[in-house]
What we know:
Layout: E1 2-6, H1 12-21, E2 27-32, H2 36-50, H3 60-65, E3 71-74, H4 81-90, E4 95-98, H5 105-117, E5 122-125, H6 132-142, E6 149-157, H7 180-196, E7 199-207, E8 219-226, E9 231-237, E10 247-252, E11 255-260, E12 263-268, E13 273-277, H8 294-309, H9 317-336, E14 340-341
Parallel strand pairs: 1-2, 1-3, 3-4, 4-5, 6-9
Antiparallel strand pairs: 6-10, 7-8, 7-14, 8-9, 10-11, 11-12, 12-13
Helix pairs in contact: 1-8, 4-5, 5-9, 6-7, 7-9
Amino acid sequence: xxxxxxxxxxxxxxxxxxxxxxxxxxxxxxxxxxxxxxxxxxxxxxxxxxxxxxxxxxxxxxxxxxxxxxxxxxxxxxxxxxxxxxxxxxxxxxxxxxxxxxxxxxxxxxxxxxxxxxxxxxxxxxxxxxxxxxxxxxxxxxxxxxxxxxxxxxxxxxxxxxxxxxxxxxxxxxxxxxxxxxxxxxxxxxxxxxxxxxxxxxxxxxxxxxxxxxxxxxxxxxxxxxxxxxxxxxxxxxxxxxxxxxxxxxxxxxxxxxxxxxxxxxxxxxxxxxxxxxxxxxxxxxxxxxxxxxxxxxxxxxxxxxxxxxxxxxxxxxxxxxxxxxxxxxxxxxxxxxxxxxxxx
Length: 345
């Protein structure tokens, strides 16, 4: 399958490695970026890496007009999405998109609905869903091995130094749509929702600590109630030096699980314990790209297989809206100081 990569920020190198190492015959057909010189340099690097010439596309219209391009991979900041989606969906070109879908829930919902209305496949890069331990936990929950779910704890104790926020627009509402929740913790939130189902109500505080200078929040604390009856807490920050792995802990009536650093620990109330997965970094420290390309590779391969077999991808746009709905409710709860209903995806 031939792929056009749009957006050449820090995650673009991960996508290059993912395409390069795939054994599915994935082919990088070209790249598009906003800075002409940087795009040319990236294309030259990609050509060397791929072993074939990787051209530069002058516009998204050029990508849309090429019948031999099977899908576009969008890795731009969220403020650049709408115009790209307009052109690609008009040409019926499938889209695989980095999170978040857009900066606000209404804007994200509009993109999902537009793709659905034009019958254009849309996948979102939520790579935590493809990890071995995450899939193992999904099987455990589907088998109801934990019994009745009672409590959930979500933690994202990450660190970013101030230089991270020096990039133009990073941590602003105009470019990113917010801070730690929509940019970093959305991955762990999405995973929890994929595993456990929707959150019904939430109370939240979203603050900017003295450790950073940015427009949006670098710390969030929340309590929530889920549709399955469980209650839970969430803490997410980029102000926890030196940064630690994100985690999800679930207490059930028959067993408890703890998912962190790519390892799932399942502890039964009778004392038996099982582990799944292998320890891996997820970019929680000063280097946000300190993680393997293999998870992105799995997401891209899943999307390619979905197109080939005419099935939905692992993370559809509709399923990704669940995280946007929760973040939107958290922002409203932060402003009101009250428990807030989460909108339906």
